[in-house]
Write a structure and sequence with these properties.
This protein is α+β, with helices and mostly antiparallel strands and 763 residues long. The chain has 24 helices and 18 strands. Strand 7 and strand 8 form a beta hairpin. The two termini are 30 Å apart.
């Protein structure tokens, strides 16, 4: 039987250097303070009805009593002095910030309605003074009440809009709060004019159409109402923008599936129709320009905009598909890990039987008491031996204890003469003592085995924790999405008449991946065109629900093998498994079962299959080998069989290789005419408690190197000089021919498997 396989690869990507975590956190904190100050500064310019400025105060209250509120208050004070509002709103900002900071540790501050109420009360303390100074005019009182209500409402809503990226941002309430925060900022931008048109009106129109396209028509209408009200309130007249943006959001969302251009055109038509409702006038022309500019701008808003988390399961966009892919990837990883542990549990379940829980008495003197209960119960001398002269009887038993411990049994001559001559059932008593002592020894051995099993199970729990920890660390790594590449790929697929969606991202090592939820275009050269767009050579692989494109490794491994069963056997007890992970890492597992024939084959396949399950689930080889060693220690004690493990790990991007051995034969590395040997001293898994870390050899392979892995039937340990010479003198490039040449002259005294690999450049 022969095995032959090829492993293709991907192009090497430059790995990102790890950043200094502490410096990154400091920079992140500085940027957050700058953002808080800038937000307060801009919001201080936002006014409704030309007088009320509730948004800046609500922004400070939304930040709570954190240090960010100090930066926000500083920004608000600077903005009030520059844009208007003067000392009144500067004093309000100081009071709101101070009250929130002083009371932040009170339990009542954790209630959602108390911080907004506190902000409104602090603002009222200052505003009522100014209102009283104006003589409590009715209009001023109405504006005061309106301002306090707005401060309370937006103080309640803004915290949801300012959630951290790791929190839930997908609910409709959070989306709408983000839109309201955007509207608050646009009230400040509304005051900025470029010629006759307002920057705030343009951005509000663009935001409305973007929301409609990314989520749904109804959310587009809701966003239009929110942003329109902000614009109308800032101007202090009519509800034109409310009606225009609401209608544009509804109609633009309906046409969203036809493309962003048609959606923008439909939204502009609605806004233009309402603008011209009362005819063309000088005032209408700037509004037409604003609507047209907003519709045009909405076409160029990136699909992965992070300010508005508008992803939706029904929305057709890159953001929602990214979330779907991340959840799917996590699900696959968890499913693989669960499968690995299921196989581990099944292996242990088959190997272990319920323990017999009996009394484990360690006192050897009770052996004689138990024997007396069996043989002396009906003896007429019982009262004399075990009552009247019990001390002498126990001394006689103590005299025989040393003999019992040394030989494992006692005879009548081992007891004192006075005791053996008086006992009428001396032979039966000795036989009973020997039986009870054998039972005592077996109980002691059982307890040792039980303790060993408990230690192994504890180790298993530790390995399980390590595996789950590594998996959690893997999930915490963020993927870097390439929005431009996604746009190009999506445009190409649509041009080819495909409705498939695509995402393009780089993994933690900087290697490019693309996921398409459908088939590749059928035209010749489709893959080459995608490679041209993405700027790298790719490997296409079918996955559940679509195609996965990954960066091609710069190296590939060509393998060849040869094997022979022991003379007189139909099957070999050796097994070989190999596979390549999604990250471009090649794994080769060679296992040699104890003995030969079907039982040895089953054992080696079980061991290599279990290890393969852990590796495919993403478990690090060191952890997988330790877990395997612990599990098989339990199984070996139950069935009395074991198998060696020889694992090779090769990164086809960098050439870095690692060799893990548990009782395995040497591995040979051929580079030119020089041959080096990799050996290990560890026993096969399941034969001891030793760690496998000392039996790991790491090195870097390059193109032209050849690796030979074999079972122990090829050459005896320390007697492989002829084998090394054969490998050194081999002039060919074929691993299959090398394996066949090494197999020539094998005696047939044992199963033999040779697996040879040649590393080549992946052109």
């Amino acid at each position: 039987m022969k095995l032959y396989g090829k492993f293709s690869g991907r192009r090497l990507a430059v790995e990102k250097a790890p950043e200094d975590t502490q410096n990154r956190e400091k920079l992140h904190l500085v940027l957050r303070h700058c953002a808080a100050a800038a937000g307060g500064f801009v919001l201080s310019a936002g006014a409704v009805f030309h007088q009320c400025r509730p948004f800046a105060l609500a922004f400070i209250a939304a930040l709570g009593g954190t240090s960010l509120s100090f930066s926000a208050a500083a920004g608000v004070i600077a903005g009030c002095l520059l844009f208007g509002g003067g000392l009144k709103y500067a004093a309000c900002a100081v009071l709101v910030m101070a009250a929130a900071y002083i009371l932040k540790d009170l339990p009542v501050m954790k209630r959602p309605f108390f911080p907004p109420l506190l902000a409104a009360v602090m603002a009222a303390c200052v505003s009522t003074v100014y209102t009283a100074a104006e003589g409590w005019e009715p209009e001023a009182v109405v504006l005061l009440v309106l301002e306090l209500v707005l401060i309370g409402c937006f103080s309640y809503l803004f915290p949801m809009a300012l959630k951290e990226p790791g929190e839930d941002l997908s609910s409709g309430r959070v989306r709408l709060c983000r839109v309201l925060l955007l509207g608050a900022f646009l009230t400040a931008a509304q005051r900025v004019y470029i010629g006759p048109v307002s920057l705030g009106h343009i951005l509000a129109a663009a935001g409305t159409l973007y929301c409609a396209r990314r989520v749904s028509p109804f959310f587009g209408a809701a966003a239009g109402i929110s942003l329109g009200l902000a614009m109308d309130a800032a101007m202090g007249e009519g509800i034109f923008f409310t009606a225009a943006f609401a209608l544009a959001g509804l109609v633009g969302g309906v046409f969203a599936r036809k493309g962003r251009i048609l959606s923008a055109v439909a939204g502009f038509v609605c806004m233009a129709a309402l603008t011209l409702w009362n005819g063309i006038s000088p005032q209408a022309l700037p509004e037409l320009y604003e609507c047209a500019a907003g519709a045009f701008l909405s076409c160029f808003v990136p699909a992965d905009t992070r300010f508005l988390p508008l992803e939706n399961a029904g929305a057709k966009g890159a953001e929602s598909h990214q979330d779907v892919y991340i959840r799917g990837n996590a699900s696959r990883r968890l499913r693989d890990t669960a499968n690995a542990f299921s196989r581990l549990g099944q292996t242990l379940s088959d190997a272990l039987s319920p323990a017999n829980r009996t009394a484990n008495t360690e006192d050897i003197s009770l052996v004689f008491v138990a024997a007396a209960d069996k043989t002396c119960r009906k003896c007429q001398n019982r009262r004399i031996c075990w009552n009247k002269e019990d001390t002498a009887t126990l001394n006689a038993c103590n005299d025989a204890t040393a003999r019992l411990r040394s030989t494992g049994e006692v005879k009548p001559g081992d007891f004192p003469k006075f005791f053996s001559s008086r006992c009428e059932k001396m032979s039966d008593f000795c036989a009973a003592v020997n039986t009870e002592y054998s039972a005592l020894l077996e109980r002691r051995r059982s307890r040792v085995r039980q303790q060993r099993s408990q230690e192994l199970l504890c180790r298993q729990y530790g390995e399980l924790g390590q595996i789950l920890s590594d998996t959690a660390a893997e999930f915490s790594k963020e993927l870097s999405y390439d929005s431009r590449a996604m746009e190009l790929l999506s445009r190409y697929l649509k041009k080819q008449g495909s409705d498939a969606r695509a995402i393009v991202f780089s993994d933690a090592a900087g290697r490019l991946h693309a996921e398409i939820d459908g088939a590749l275009p059928s035209e010749p050269g489709a893959l080459m065109e995608i490679e041209r767009m993405l700027g790298t050579s790719l490997v296409a692989r079918q996955v559940e629900g679509g195609v996965h494109l990954s960066q091609r490794e710069p190296l590939r491994a060509i393998a060849g093998s040869a094997c022979a069963a022991k003379a007189g056997q139909q099957v070999s007890g050796d097994s070989v498994m190999y596979f390549r992970s999604e990250t471009g890492v090649l794994y080769i597992i060679l296992s040699d079962g104890m003995g030969s024939g079907p039982d040895a084959m089953e054992e080696s396949r079980s061991v290599s299959g279990l290890l393969e399950s852990f590796l495919k689930a993403g478990v690090e080889p060191e952890v997988a080998m330790r877990t395997l060693n612990s599990a098989l220690s339990l199984k070996t004690g139950a069935v009395g069989a074991f198998a060696t493990v020889d694992l090779m790990q090769l990164d086809l991007f960098s050439g870095r290789a690692a060799f893990f051995k548990l009782g395995a034969a040497p591995t040979y590395i051929k580079r030119g005419q020089k041959v080096s040997r990799i050996t290990a001293a560890a026993l096969p898994p399941g034969t001891g408690f030793g760690s496998v870390s000392s039996d790991v050899t790491r090195l870097t392979l390059c193109a032209g190197d050849m690796v030979v892995m074999s079972s122990d039937g090829l050459a005896q340990k320390g007697e492989d000089g002829v084998l090394v010479e054969k490998i050194s003198k081999f002039e060919g490039n074929s691993p299959r021919l090398l394996a066949a040449e090494l197999m020539s002259g094998v005696s047939g005294d044992d199963d033999v498997t040779v697996f040879a690999i040649r590393i080549e450049e992946n052109k």
